[in-house]
């Protein structure tokens, strides 16, 4: 069992050290086929059924570049304000690992397709941080290892391992930042905001489904610390394959406190990869981190260089959609949102969800209320991102429509949402299954009102005496009798009419 690391108080870390970040994000493209062969590019499926001699690395099999993947790489580079190479090529990155059948990864090394870009990132309080992009290069994904018999699901302690090569050869774009300095105590927040902004950008480009839970968007977080008077970067660690926005922030914060404790005691940081533990937000040691020399990069002899014409690049630039930052400015103006209201939307990751709900027929105010309040609370309870809740903007718009038409009260609508989240079907199906429709038959309501008035004759006298507020007690009794399925406003109207008649 791994010993628990000593940690330094976060405030002390900030007082004594300057953090430096480097974020590497791997994006699986949503092409129909893999990067260098015609196998289907699909998530899941029976193990080792979406493979061929090329992606299995069998002798004599030759790769062919997926043109759609190159197009996606260029569009990503342009959206990140990068320069697009006039000539670039693939290289072989040599290392042995069981889930990589060729024993090398076809990647790009010193000649990436896109380089020298930036992405402006907005933090929770509205501050904008520019994150500079070193490169965005093309490569292929590896297969997947399943370690069986251990307590952690990792190779250490496992009885045996299984290999699934369905993912081997899936097109990847790796986006690498330049060192991110000067963020101080906000370093973890900047890391999360950057990956969030990048995910939103990639979703807008429609080049990936950016499902972090399925591994189509993964972040490697490099962290190092510099003493306040230092002029050189400290030794970095790389926490691999962090697969949620919240975890990116937690991983960076943990590494800062762990490294600071070691340095404060006169120790040194080992350059290594580390694994993030979702259960407690800690990281654990993986393997010694290789350098570029260890990988013995050399040009891929089986693939021709890529030389995108300037005309094609400009043609692809014309296909770029409205960028998320521009869209937010437009939406803020169209919906008449204050800066604070927009920040609330951004903080819970609801801008695109609200916009899609509005497009499905809801009003901006109603859509915003449901996503920022009710559904954000559900996401927090489940400890998932808002976008990962099992409910779509179209379904939320349908629930809002049922409330607007009087078929549901707000209370009943929340029960319907619970049913949708529980997988019970579409909103109207949940209404029928749970019997949640509003009681709109006046005769049924009057019967319940008469029963309540008979049980509380003193309340009826107060209402007749002009104390209309006393009707609230009868409304409450009727709502209880109808299991909350009555329209409280209509019930109040009927009470006043009944007592006054």
UniProtKB/TrEMBL annotation:
EC number of the protein: 6.3.5.-
Classification via PROSITE patterns: GATB
GO biological process: glutaminyl-tRNAGln biosynthesis via transamidation; translation
Keywords: ATP-binding, Ligase, Nucleotide-binding, Protein biosynthesis, Transferase
Stretches the record annotates as Disordered: 272-291
GO MF annotation list: asparaginyl-tRNA synthase (glutamine-hydrolyzing) activity; ATP binding; glutaminyl-tRNA synthase (glutamine-hydrolyzing) activity; transferase activity
Residue ranges of domain Asn/Gln amidotransferase in the record: 352-499
Catalysed reactions listed for this entry: L-aspartyl-tRNA(Asn) + L-glutamine + ATP + H2O = L-asparaginyl-tRNA(Asn) + L-glutamate + ADP + phosphate + 2 H(+); L-glutamyl-tRNA(Gln) + L-glutamine + ATP + H2O = L-glutaminyl-tRNA(Gln) + L-glutamate + ADP + phosphate + H(+)
Homology family: Belongs to the GatB/GatE family. GatB subfamily.
Role description: Allows the formation of correctly charged Asn-tRNA(Asn) or Gln-tRNA(Gln) through the transamidation of misacylated Asp-tRNA(Asn) or Glu-tRNA(Gln) in organisms which lack either or both of asparaginyl-tRNA or glutaminyl-tRNA synthetases. The reaction takes place in the presence of glutamine and ATP through an activated phospho-Asp-tRNA(Asn) or phospho-Glu-tRNA(Gln).
Quaternary context: Heterotrimer of A, B and C subunits.
Name under which the protein is recorded: Aspartyl/glutamyl-tRNA(Asn/Gln) amidotransferase subunit B
Species this protein is from: Amycolatopsis pretoriensis
